[in-house]
């Protein structure tokens, strides 16, 4: 399939420096981490979050407790990884984040050690498209082969797994999502964790049914035709008859 809802959503532009100052983005990264922590997707210092503003990236510092993150624990680097603002060393997964920005032009990256996503990555080679909402991530979610954290090998395997996808699972490690905006990258992480939970429950009862290509295409066509996922006011003519 050449088109998924992920490809549709990915056409939205990332943040620009004129739309938001980096100080605001540092606050947004801290807010996102605290939300992900509250949702149970981030534990202790495990995981990292970043957002890109043109040629600058605001990214979590290594060793920070993410569920309690403050804006001063977010470091700003350029797209080559050079620190341009901040007093703390950035996450050990900096190369992974920068690789996503260079290859896919994304606006934000979220890496978690979410329990259900991590569990699914222990047993599957890919999470199949068991629900149409997974089309927002590109359909099936690949599992990147295991590699030591913070290494070029890990970054390379995850970047390959993200090709055409908004999310990837990481064998024996966790998950990564990316999107044009930080809010969307967080939503993708939450969606992936939900889908992994659905798969786990279904697999405990039997073999989960998977949407085939025809069914997936029908969902995409319906979503585009109905502008799925946005609110719509009632037309004035219909309001008069209510």
**CATH topology description:** L-fuculose-1-phosphate Aldolase
Q: What is the number of beta strands?
A: 9
Q: Tell me about the biggest sheet? A: 9 strands, mixed
Give the percentage of residues in beta strands: 15-25%
Percent in helix: 25-40%
Question: Judging by the overall fold, what is the CATH architecture?
Answer: 3-Layer(aba) Sandwich
Structural class given helices, strands, pairing?
alpha+beta
CATH class: Alpha Beta
Low-confidence stretches: none
How many independent structural domains? 1
Computed Rg: 18 Å
CATH superfamily, please? Class II aldolase/adducin N-terminal domain
Strand order of the largest sheet: 4-3-2-1-5-9-8-7-6
Q: Give the overall shape, derived from the CA principal axes.
A: globular
Number of helices: 8
Average the pLDDT over all residues and give the rounded result.
91
Task: Return the string of H and E elements.
Answer: HHEEEEHEHEEHEEHHH
Distance between the termini: 42 Å
Task: Report what the structure shows.
This protein has helices at residues 5-9, 22-38, 94-104, 115-123, 152-161, 182-205, 213-226, 236-240; strands at 48-53, 56-60, 74-78, 83-85, 108-112, 126-127, 141-144, 167-170, 174-179. Helix 2 (22-38) packs parallel to helix 6 (182-205) and helix 4 (115-123) crosses helix 6. The protein has 242 residues and is an alpha+beta fold. The chain is globular, with a radius of gyration of 18 Å. The chain has a single domain (5-226), classed as 3-Layer(aba) Sandwich (L-fuculose-1-phosphate Aldolase). The chain is built from eight helices and nine strands. Helices cover 39% and strands 17% of the residues. A nine-stranded mixed sheet has the order 4-3-2-1-5-9-8-7-6, with helices on both faces. It comes from Streptomyces phaeofaciens.
């Amino acid at each position: 399939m050449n088109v998924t809802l992920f490809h549709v959503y990915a056409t939205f532009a990332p943040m620009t420096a004129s739309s938001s100052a980096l100080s605001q983005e540092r606050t947004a990264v801290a807010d996102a981490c605290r939300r992900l922590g509250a949702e149970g997707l981030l534990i202790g210092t495990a995981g990292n979050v970043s957002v890109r503003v043109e040629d600058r990236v605001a990214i979590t510092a290594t060793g920070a407790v993410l569920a309690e993150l403050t804006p001063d624990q977010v470091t700003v680097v350029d797209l080559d990884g050079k620190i341009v603002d901040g007093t703390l060393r950035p996450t050990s997964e900096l190369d992974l984040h920068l690789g996503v920005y260079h290859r896919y032009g994304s606006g934000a990256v979220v890496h978690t050690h979410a329990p259900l996503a991590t569990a699914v990555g222990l047993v599957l080679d890919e999470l199949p498209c068991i629900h149409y909402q997974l089309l927002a991530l590109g359909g099936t979610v690949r599992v990147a082969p295991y590699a030591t954290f913070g290494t070029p090998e890990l970054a390379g395997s995850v970047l390959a797994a993200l090709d055409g996808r908004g999310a990837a699972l990481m064998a024996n490690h966790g998950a990564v999502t990316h999107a044009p905006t930080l809010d969307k990258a967080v939503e993708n992480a939450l969606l992936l964790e939900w889908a992994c939970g659905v798969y786990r429950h279904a697999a405990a009862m039997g073999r989960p049914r998977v949407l085939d290509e025809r069914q997936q295409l029908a969902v995409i066509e319906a979503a585009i035709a109905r502008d799925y996922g946005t609110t719509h006011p009632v037309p004035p003519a219909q309001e008069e008859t209510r």
